[in-house]
Write the structure tokens for this entry.
Amino acid sequence: MFWKSFLGKLFFKRKKQQRLPETGNETENNILQENMPSPDPAPAASANLSTDLDANVARITAAYGESADLVVREMETATSPPIKIAVFFIDGLVINLAVTEGVVAPLLAPPAALSAQAKPHPTFFEAANKTLLQIGEVSEAQTFEDIFTGLASGKTAVLIDKNSRALLTGTEGWKERGIEEPATESVVRGPRDSFAERLRGNTALLRLRLKSPRLRIEEFQLGELTKTTVALAYIQGLATDKLLQEVRKRLKRVKIDGILESGYLEEFIEDEPLSPFPQLLRSERPDRVAASLLEGKVAVFTDGTPFVLLVPSFLPEFLSTPEDYYERYFIGSFIRLIRYVAIIISLVLPSVYVAIITFHQEMLPTELILSIASQREGIPFPTFVEAFLLELAFEILREAGLRLPRVIGQAVSIVGVIIIGQAAVQAGLVSQFMLIIVALTAVASFATPVFSLAITMRLLRFVLLILASTLGFFGILAGIYTIFLHLVSLRSFGFPYLKPLGPVMLSDLKDTLVRVPFWAMRTRPRLVAPRDRVRQAEGLKPKPPQHRERDDAKNKGGDGA
Amino acid sequence: MPLFIPRPGLWLRNGIKILVRLCPENKIKPKESTRGTHPKGDDRRGQRRPVEIVLILAFSLVFMLLSCSGCWDKTEIEDLAILTAWGVDREENGDILASAVIVKPFAVAGKTGEGSAPPERPFWLASSSGRNMLEAMCNFAAFSPRFIFCAHSRFVIFGEETARQGVEKILDFFERNREPRLTANLLVVKDMTAAEFLKSEFEMVPLPPEGGLGLIQNATRRLGTVVNVNLNDFLIALGSEGIEPVAGCFEVIPKRPVPLEGELERKEIIQSPVINGAAAFKDDRLVGWLNRTETRGLQWIRGKVENTPLLVENPMAPPALIGVEVIRANSAVTPSMVKGKPHVQIKIELEGNIEDAQGFFDPKTDPAVLKNIEKRMAAVIEKESEAVLHRCQQELNTDIFGFGATFHRSLPQTWDRLRGNWDTEFPRLEVSLDIKTHIRLSGLAIESIKKIK
Amino acid sequence: MKPLEGGKISPRQLYTLLVLSNLETTTSILPSLTVAIAGRDSWLTILLAIIAALPLGLLAAWLGRRFPRQTLIQYSPKLLGKPLGFLVGVFYVWFFVHITSLVVRETAVGFNLSVLPQTPPIVLIIILVVLSATTARSGIEVIGRLAESSFVLVLFSVLLTLFLPLNFAHFEYLQPVLARGVLPLLPAVLIPLGLLSEFVAANMVIPYLSEPQKAGRTLFFTVLTSGTVILLFTIIIIAVFNQTAQNLTLPPFQLARIISIGNFLERIEVIVLAVWTVVALIKAAFFMWIGMLGPAQLFNLKGYRELAYPLGIIVIVLAILSYDNFAAAVSFYTPQVWGVYSVTVEIGIILLLSALALLRGKKGNTLRTTEN
């Protein structure tokens, strides 16, 4: 037994390394994936089940060691000759009732007609599959690998003696977080649901929004130990084949022990690992993902996290929110412009302040320079150090407030902002102006809808601060130029990251700095192949009727208006 | 020393490269998969690496080191002595005495504070001398603990004596140096040195430059008997042919001490400036003062009157006065040669509203009365213009109107003949005035209070 | 064999690139150069230069379109024979490297004159060169995008500096027109012409255009746009400063310094500084790209990106050596020296090659070669 399990483990490990690239698409596939490229067939034969039930059971139990949550039920049918059956499931991942009534009960007591002619193997196996099991989803498994994966995703495995196949029945059911309001992308107007941790529920939310069968969902399994299911969602015909192949290629390249969040994947599939900028947009809102798919993007779902990666992503999208589209376009455009202003402020304001105060004092109005100078009177640090320390303090405060429970977090911000800030000014450590600047910057950085971009800006803000304190505006300009140069040469899955501002695409500017009304957005962005670009009928701009309809019934038909 | 700069960048870049290579996870290069994904599908980016990030990191590191050492042009704002007005005089030996109004920021701010400290004068008056402006300015360093910073100077003020001796040698500094602005106002102080003048204080505003600026703007907008000249205007007039510069004029009217009532602990202002008239230059020398009427005449001719009160006799009740507020005035100067002699025609057009009427005044009974008033307005303007023309042509012989320049612009060939002897031609220049006045509104009332004649 | 440069650039990107390149000199020294010679009539010299440059732009585009797959460096040996063609190529490349060094030097000096008097110019020069070399090695595609994306913002800032000082402008200062006749103006035409004719840089870019048939239109509008901006600058500088403009080293900067609207919208010369820096970096990057690709094609190298930093060092040295003090600069930027030099290299090469192409009837291969 020991020997067996040892061998099995050894075997298991080696096999896994060989098999990994081919995994995925082995589990149940969506019925709609007819034109998906089929994965490489024929896994290693050695991983197959044997016809000996005892050996199989032994191997499975050995693989799980003494894991307490693995339930093994070995039983025999009430037929003659009895057929040995083993049922495996993992406690907590299945609905017990379904296992009892849908799997165990029908197998134990097959109908008389069947039991009369019951013979072990293939016939009984087929019968179990076709007639006995009272479970909606049943699939066949050939390898241990499939069984392990199935068990871990809440399926019940049925092994029948003399059969080198197993049946995986869909008995999944576990305690799951319900659909809640999105925590990171809240809106005033718009749907309130957000993705949760489980993949299937997430794809269901998407399917509810995009009911066309052209919505395709492909699944992969990544992570040697976690076996995380990663799903690609796209709309067939809108997402170009080139993009899809590229996404598949990049995802399949990932060989890692575990994937616990889409952030793991992000770092493997992004284009420029050395860039401080987030290159993939993540969202936990089904509506946003659906909208992106309609523009020809691919969504990468990762099991275990509500955050879905949208591929490819462009910088201007990091500054848009779903609400821009739900509010009327004037408001949407205005808010979006405000965000652009805010992100610029959050990037450059402290450095511009330092540059002006230490290099270009002539650029301030006289009254302002006097008032700043009077506040700086007696402050022991140079402006740059003052700014740097205060920015640092703010970052610490922000981080402290973020990680603590919400109630204590508020206390932290009150202590930090009111007490420390006030005391620092009164003690003559920092000037009020600097406090205003830092606070304004902080507020502006909170106006960036995507957290990862806001963090990038904070990081770059320090760099610009140093540049500004050395060479004034020249330093800031050199820094901004460098950032800009970097952005212009960045790509997201082969598309320019700054699109449509990078190479200016006039037709795509309609949804960048401002959002034009929907009836003016006739075409999809330039991501989509030209033939699929038109997204709505022509002439949808609302037109009031030429002649006013009169309220009174008398005039109805009177003058033929 | 700066030659060392690129190196840390190189080290850092190589260092990061090595680090990236060392990490086993990074043996897979995600970038390779970039290839072929561009719509046009080629590996044009094959050789590019993200140097920018490394670059910016390297720069910021180097700069952090540099900025700690307090480099080059960096000056903390509290180390500056913010100078808001220059006063320039010449000493007897020909040296320049530069006086400066330097604001004390702490004292300015102090006025909003708790007032525990005794009230302090918010500015410091300092003078320093040198053989030219540059030396004078640098000599401040000998006794000013803070760095003289004159980008915020709003005024260049000359004492009368200095202006009479010529200002060109002083002005070059203001044109060349990067700190002073060409928008600073240029004024001359009557009967006084600039250093003495700067001691004066203004009512209502604590800082002299603010007060001076207020005076100029106020007087230009409401009174019209001053000229608002900045350095740029002055330099253009100085450097062009056929026009002579003018400058604003400050004078100080000593106040008699009066016991103050209703004010708490407010120090009485003894010396407060008044803005009035203009200083006429010939070349770079002050040659004479224009009084209020003459200045307004000058402004009529130059078409620069914004708002001004114009008083004429009430035609319906002769000794009483009608006050017309001029709201718009334009002028056009047309040069010509009449019988071989230079001649300019000045067309002045203006609009005004009646804002003050005394004695019997009722335009409804006699519609011609407005025409009459308009005529009288024209007469006043003509009188004022002729006064300044006479003054400049006959007494001062300086073409502050720029008549020569109009010849130069419109009749360049004629100007070629005139240019050499413009000094003798200018006094003989014939000027004809064509004044059109127009009354638009009569305020919120039509007739005067007094109805019966 | 892989092509040296695999990037593509759209006509619009080329247009913005060339206009921004012209703006660099426009916003720094050009107005003072022409005003110093032609006085208040210098706007006429610019008008003349535009008129002269328009057909030349079309000619350059025609020449480039005749050899649609080749750069000037590649087709000049075909037209002139190997040694002469090589020499022309060397001159062409040298000219752009030289301009790069001048651009860098001007910008550094501009900052020295305006806001950073104490900072050693070499520091500024090195930073500018490192940044532009880094840009240049990213290829023409990135340079084009950079220009395209910053174009609107730069143009807007330029127009702001042009129109905000209007309340100080006296357009009567432009009179008398042609008081001294046309003749004294003619030498001064060379300077704006030399600047406008920098469009010959396009002859290195035309093979990489995504729509080469639009080359002529692109160059035409380039000349028109940058000519108009130069014209406006010159007119407004004269209208604000009159004759004293001759005396100013950096008229556009002074123009921005004089802006004062109400009492709040003033002291915004930082706009000019920003325009200087961005535009100088883009121009230097573009011309350094020529300075890298040119030699790579002249000597049949396998790649050109490796040349970026070595070329950068050359540019730094040239920038330091280009002139010693302002007097040398003043005597260098005269029509007799700078004007003749730039016009000869730029227009001379184009005229020579076009004439030869026409006479000898040579044409480039219009077919898409396998290598591309």
